[in-house]
User: Fold this.
Amino acid sequence: MAHSIEPSSTEPTPKHRRRGQHPRRDFLKTTIALALAGGPFGALASSAPRRTTLRANSKLAVAKIGCGGMGGGDLEQVARHADVTIVGLCDVDGGTLQRVGKDDKNDKGNDPYKDVPKFQDWREMFAKLDDRFDAVVVSTPDHTHAIISLDAIKRDKHVYTQKPLARAASENRALAAAAKAKPSIVTQMGTQRSAVAERRLSYDLVRKEVVGKIRAMHAWTDRPAGWWPCGQPRPSDSDPVPADLAWDVWLGPAPNRPYKKGVYAPFHWRGTRDFGTGAFGDMACHIMDMPYYGLDLALPIECSCDAPDGTDDQFPNQETVLMKFAPTARTASNGLDFTWYDGGRLPDFKAIGLPETLAPSDRGSNDEHGCLPLPKDGAAILVGEGGLLVIPIQGQFPYAFIDGKRRDFENTFATTNHWHDWVDACLGRGKARAPFETAAVMCEALALGAIASRYATTDAAAPRKTLKYDAAKFAFTDGSGTVIEGSEAYLHPTPRAGW
Assistant:
């Protein structure tokens, strides 16, 4: 399965369709069914005529969903583009909405969003502003990415959605199908690191096979590292919902649960299975994306996990995830073994073949091989038939060890603005770097790893429970064709009633 991280999308912005052509609940189910069947996408095809020009001011009209934290950064970056007009703002937290723009004054000292309509429910914004915006930026918790993005694509809007693309495997499959059905829509997953020169060079080196065919890959992150709670049971009590928080909208399609102060919103949700994808889904998007795309990897054929303390409600504090991939033109003939480590776990660098001095540390100087220490927050190591390729998460250029000697590579790439790349592509003059059709494959694999932690062994020395993945049938089996109990609901969760 070939991937491209820079596909073009130069067709004109489409004319918007009217609300209500597809009920929201049925739309997600229909999209998934079509994606799994590999059949025609008639339910998604737009029969409306395409608009051949932008609005009178020739600017991209953008609606923004999620305005705090990373969402605030996304808003700031997109709004800085000279050809963007922000026409709608949405956040479930009324206090966040009131603060938007207050610390980012324009040249005249005024609130740049003073007259922009503001909403706490994205569905209301879509209904009221449908004919006023061309594109939407989605910076919400993982569990609401898919339902918002699918509705936007249905309305013929360009979409930028933060990583990981979606929480559930089925949602990622649905987003890929929806994007494929409407090639004139520009989609991009928010992995801003993919636009920096170091990452672009790493993709090029993988494609050029500088260390030969790849037989194994190792990657890690230090997360969660205190960023969010993990390994805990579901809280049994609740707190009053703040007056300015639209809690039901925050929950969206996730199963209903009471509000608990400081446990979920606004940030600590990532360690909870109903809302996030844990450290693997959070950070692997930034660490293994270039190798994944560069090696043309499809979906894993099996995966397993060991972790000490995962619960039914939360991901483990640390884990080791193993995945097996079928061979591609750029891997060894028997495929590729991928091992992921998080929460303080690390590869055995000596066993891989790297100098022991390359272990992650705070050391600021080069070692005897001229290498800076590996970053604590992540890197990928590709084990090839002709050497090792080291790809730090960011801040360091990739390098190789061939015949035991370090080799550096000339960089011919520039760092671009990931957000502006998407805007330019929407305007027909550039390419999106992480389109949904490409990003969804990797994010489906990450969702599988998240599920594997539910079946993890707690004893690292005990045999792992291997989950065989049948991508065509969209099922986890035990290898004999028997579906693993409970896995269907994890792969394809049912949205909450009303969503």
User: Anything to note?
Assistant: The longest strand covers residues 84-90.
